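#struct-help
A.M.: can someone run this one for me? Single chain, 351 residues.
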Amino acid sequence: MVDKERIQAANLGRRNRGSHLAQDKRKKRVVFILAAIIAVLVIAIPVYGWVTTFIMPPRETIVRVNDTSYDMAYLLKIIRMVQRQSEASGQQVNLGTIPFQLVNNLAEDELIAQGAQAIGLTVTDEELNSQLRSEFLVNVDTGAGLSDADLNTEFRERYRQFLNQIQLSASEYEAIVTRNLYRDKLEEHLGAAIPKELPQIHLFALAVQTQEIAEEVRTQYLRGTPFAELVAEHSVDPEAVRLEGEVDWVPRGVLDPLIAEFVFDELETGVISEPLPQFDSASSQEFFVLYYVPEREDLREVSDNNFVALRNEAVNDWVQAQRDLNEVFTSFDSNQYAWLAKKLRLTTILQ
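D.P.: on it. Structure tokens below:
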């Protein structure tokens, strides 16, 4: 009986020791797994930070027009070009506006380049080379007896120095120039459709601070005070005072559509208008404008300034129409801006 009890006790002891060994193995396995996870995290966290800081942002697409895309790395190159050119003249780049403008310009320029080619406009190698030479030989006296070989040498040296300054390759810079040339071609193409003569009004304007002042101006005008004297007395714009309130002879297309409809279709000749409220976004203040049209012409030659304004408006309308017809994508968020600004602060020479 004693032997049987001893045998049972021995078996129980072996089972207990086996159970403890199994528990120890499981504990060691858990500890090993936890240690492995911690080790992976220790390695992964800085790697993830390195990837998200240095690898991912430059590859993020910020502009895509149909099948052509531009990433953050390209935008950084372009802004650094602007940065180096600005700082060479002692000016800092305005990081509050320039990055956003360049993203928009990049999308618009690519859209214009693709659309211009679609309507048959081209930029030849000869036109590109001519534009480059005009840029870099602009202040060279070609009548000073320099040979073609001398001019070519001078051009190549200046071009080399410029590329070294802006840190772009020749192909990268020439792509920018080519897009600009496509814009010029499109402006010329659309400008050809603008008539040389258009209906125009001789427009005057007087901006005042309050509606009460505007009503006083109208009262004085009805009593016979000349418009120029009213401008000198009440205008908030010194330049308007100098010009006696004259805006210009203007065709309809150079004015804001709502203003154009009012002064062309509603305002009678020789009558001062009711005050129209307007808002100055720069000062966040409301002001009031009175318009005056002393004369009109059914057809009048379009001035150079008005022609440029009409042509620019035609380009803007064309671009907007192309946006609706093409796949245009832009993305530039606060994280991308912060990454870009950090990179630019590292390369600035002005503090």
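A.M.: thanks! The radius of gyration is 36 Å.
D.P.: also worth noting: The CA atoms of residues 204 and 245 lie 5 Å apart.
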